[in-house]
Each structure stands twice: as C-alpha cells, then as structure tokens.
Write a structure and sequence with these properties.
With 367 residues, the protein is α/β, with parallel strands linked by helices. The protein folds into two domains: 172 residues, Rossmann fold, CATH 3.40.50; 188 residues, Dehydroquinate synthase-like - alpha domain (Dehydroquinate synthase-like, alpha domain, Up-down Bundle). It is 46% helix and 18% strand. The strands form three sheets. The protein has a seven-stranded mixed beta sheet with strand order 1-2-9-6-5-3-4, with helices on both faces. Strands 7-8 form a two-stranded antiparallel ribbon. A two-stranded antiparallel sheet has the order 10-11. A hairpin with a 2-residue loop joins β10 and β11. It is globular. It starts with a strand and ends with a helix. The chain binds nicotinamide-adenine-dinucleotide (NAD), the ligand O=C(O)C(=O)C[C@@H](O)[C@H](O)[C@H](O)COP(=O)(O)O and zinc ion. Keywords: Amino-acid biosynthesis, Aromatic amino acid biosynthesis, Cobalt, Cytoplasm, Lyase, Metal-binding, NAD, Nucleotide-binding, Zinc.
C-alpha cells in the first residue's frame, strides 16, 4: 500500500478512510472484504462504466473472495430521480440485502449519490462503499455523505446524510475518462482551493492543465479530499461551515436546473458559478477585481467555462435563475444565502443576499 494515500474522515464511530492512488482497489483487500459478511457484493453501476470496467473490477473482487452481483442502470442525471431510486431500492430488495451488508457504488457522482440514498432508505439503512470512477466523484461527491436525487424542484432536493464505510479512489479507473469529464471534476478541486487553500490554488495555476493527468493528480485529489474531510468532520450536516463547500453551487445548481438534463456537466456549472461568485464578490466590493479575474483566467486556461455564455446551453433567464436560487437548500428566513469570497482562499457565507442587486448582476452577466 506504500503508494496509496489515505485520508480519514473523522466522524467518531462513523469515521472512514479514503484511499487514493493507482491500484487502490486491489490494495484495499481485507478492509474492503470486511464489509461483505455473506461473501457477495451487490454493485450498482451505470452502463458506460459497466462496459469499461465491470469485468476488471469483478475479477479484482473475485480474487478477494467476493461474488459480485451487478445492478446496471442508465447513465446520466436522468437516473438520479425517483424512478432511478425505485429501480435501485427494488434491486437491493430483490437480492434480499441485509443490514450487515454493504452495497458498492461504482461510478461517477450520479451513481454515488443515487446508490448512497438507496442504501440510506433500504431497510432503513444498509452500508455502502464508494468506488468513484470520475475525477469529480473522487475529489468530491464520494466523500462527505451527501446522497440524494433531483426532483422537478431542483438538484438534490430529496436525499439524506448517509456516510459510506470506505471510499476507494483508484486512479486506474480514470484512464478511460473523457477529457470533458476530467475537466468537470477539476472544477471541484479549484473550488476547494478557492474556499480555503490559496497555496493550492497557486499550485494549480502553476501546474495548469498538467495536473489533470500528470503525476501530480494523486496529490491534488488527496488535497481536495483532505480539505473536504476536515470540513465534513467539523459540520457533517451543514449547520454552518460546511455551506462553504457550496461555493459556486447556488449559481451552478440554478444553471443545471434550468438546462435540459445532461447538456451541461455539474462541474461546468460549478466552474461558471464559482467565477460568478467571485465576480459578484468583486461587484459588491468584498473581493478585489484582480482575484476574480485570476479565477476566471485559470478556469479558461484549463478549458473550463467561466461565464454563462461559455456553457453548452444558451437559453438563460436571470429572473428564472434567481428564482431557482430562492429555493436553495442553504436559505434561511426567506433570504438567499450565497457563498462569496474576500479573496482567493477566503470564502465566506452571506446569509442574506440583496435579491434585487443579485438580479441586476445576473442580468448584466447574461447580456
Ligand atoms: N454528494 C456530493 O457531495 C456531490 C458532490 C459533487 C457532485 N455531486 C453530484 O455528482 C453528479 C455529477 O457527477 P459526475 O460528474 O461524476 O457525473 P456522472 O456520474 O454522470 O458521470 C459522468 C459521465 O462519465 C461516465 N463515466 C463515469 N466513469 C467513467 C470512466 N471511468 N470512464 C469513462 N466514462 C465514465 C458516466 O457514465 C457518465 O456518462 C451530479 O449529480 C452532482 O450533483 C454530488
Ligand atoms: O459536500 C458538500 O457539502 C457540497 O456542497 C459538495 C458539492 O460539490 C456537491 O455538489 C453537493 O452535492 C451539493 O450539495 P447541495 O446540498 O447543495 O445539494
Ligand atoms: Zn458540486
């Protein structure tokens, strides 16, 4: 296990480890097998990942003595839905999963969020293990226990906090990831740096797109995971500081909710949302225009969008986007909560954004 990095999410008796690096799955061995007392592993994945990785993953799990029972669902956000949830819960019940058993989520954020939520509600809670196969899932969605589905009201509007027992972020699984997905995942690494790690952002700026597939990737993944783990350990249920992890998401989720499904990637919406959070902070005088410009320049340098016009959908309406923000889960007392920044690496929570000013700002951004 010498080349495998280990990050612990310190949640007391629900603490778990995130293993990062090439070969992490085969290195996991006994600590993985311990979660399958019946010797079988129900594994939920999507069709793309199944075609690319299921045989190899099944072979690795077989070598550890586990019999894999795959559940294969359609790829994409459409599966992160009530229908997708019913499909996965029924699949677990068909196989008579017991509470002592874990289910494996092998895939991107969609599979992780959906399977985690299914695990949370099936028989009032079974265990689950994340084997993330997108960069986004490795750096962000597999860690922290936010699970859920989208509803017509918006992103992740039904869900639960249900922590995995183990996360295995094996770099070998990323070999088949299309560049667009890789960049989308990188947006959440940038987000982490912008929230509270200015030196990491400087490193990312220096490394440029090289960090996306170079030897630096494991370090960057582990840094983003460690950053998230610290915040989750402090505020698991987002009563305070965890809301910072939503930098770029108040804007980003509004774009996702107002676009047709699967036209823009979550990471792309977060990239634009993060650039807007900095631009809006600069507009309010909270943050220097230089920092906002550096954020947008870095996102563009790695091939990510930094303004609404650079997204793969163009039919935006400022009033509709602000109305989505009014529904955001972070809001309190009928006011929009925004995650803004005083500088790169210094995000803060504004629990009462000025809606009229925000609307005017969005109008200028869309014009
Ligand atoms: N729970 C959280 O904390 C959290 C954090 C961030 C994002 N999310 C959620 O995660 C979702 C986005 O996740 P995502 O970006 O991973 O999208 P995704 O799960 O839809 O995966 C993107 C695409 O890549 C394919 N794919 C997955 N692994 C692959 C591989 N190794 N090789 C080739 N193709 C592969 C998938 O089949 C899919 O087509 C959103 O729903 C978002 O809301 C949740
Ligand atoms: O883990 C968190 O907390 C996050 O906010 C991470 C986000 O990257 C992620 O997209 C999350 O699913 C958003 O959560 P939501 O509560 O805004 O739905
Ligand atoms: Zn996100």
């Amino acid at each position: 296990m010498s080349d495998i990095l280990r990050v612990t999410v310190g949640l007391g008796d629900r603490a778990y480890d995130v293993l990062v690096g090439a070969g992490a799955l085969s290195a996991a061995g006994p600590e993985l097998v311990a979660h399958f007392p019946r010797g079988r592993a129900i594994l939920v994945t999507d069709r793309h990942v199944a075609d690319l990785h299921l045989d190899a993953v099944t072979a690795q799990l077989s070598r550890l003595g586990l019999r894999v029972e795959p559940v294969i669902i359609a790829p994409g956000e459409t599966s992160k839905s009530w229908a997708g949830l019913e499909q996965v819960v029924d699949a677990l019940l068909d196989r008579n999963i017991e509470r002592s058993e874990a289910v494996i989520a092998l895939g991107g954020g969609v599979i992780g969020d959906l399977t985690g939520f299914a695990a949370a509600v099936t028989k009032r809670g079974v265990n689950f293990i994340q084997i993330p196969t997108t960069l986004l899932a490795q750096v962000d969605s597999s860690v922290g226990g936010k699970t859920g589905i989208n509803t017509t009201h918006g992103k992740n509007f039904a869900g639960s906090f249900h922590q995995p027992k183990l996360v295995i972020a094996d770099r070998d699984l990323l070999a088949t990831l299309p560049d667009r997905e890789r960049r989308a995942g990188y947006a959440e690494i940038v987000k982490a740096a912008l929230i509270g790690d200015a030196p990491l952002f400087a490193q990312l700026e220096a490394a440029g797109a090289g960090v996306l597939d170079g030897a630096d990737l494991d370090q960057a993944v582990a840094a983003a995971v460690a950053f998230k783990a610290r915040i989750v350990a402090e505020d698991e249920r987002e009563t305070g500081v965890r809301a910072l992890l939503n930098l770029g998401h108040t804007f980003g989720h509004a774009f996702e909710a107002d676009a047709p499904k699967d036209v823009i990637r979550h990471g792309e919406a977060v990239a634009v949302g993060t650039a807007l959070a900095f631009a809006y902070s600069a507009h309010r005088g909270d943050c220097s225009a230089d920092h906002a410009a550096r954020v947008a320049a870095h996102l563009r340098a790695v091939g990510l969008p930094a303004s609404p016009a650079e997204l793969a959908h163009s039919d935006w309406n400022a009033a509709s986007l602000v109305s989505r923000m009014r529904d955001d889960k972070k809001n309190r007392d009928g006011r929009i909560t925004l995650i803004l920044a005083r500088a790169i690496g210094a995000a803060f929570i504004d629990p009462a954004a000025d809606e009229a000013d925000l609307l005017a700002f969005m109008e200028t951004q869309l014009s």
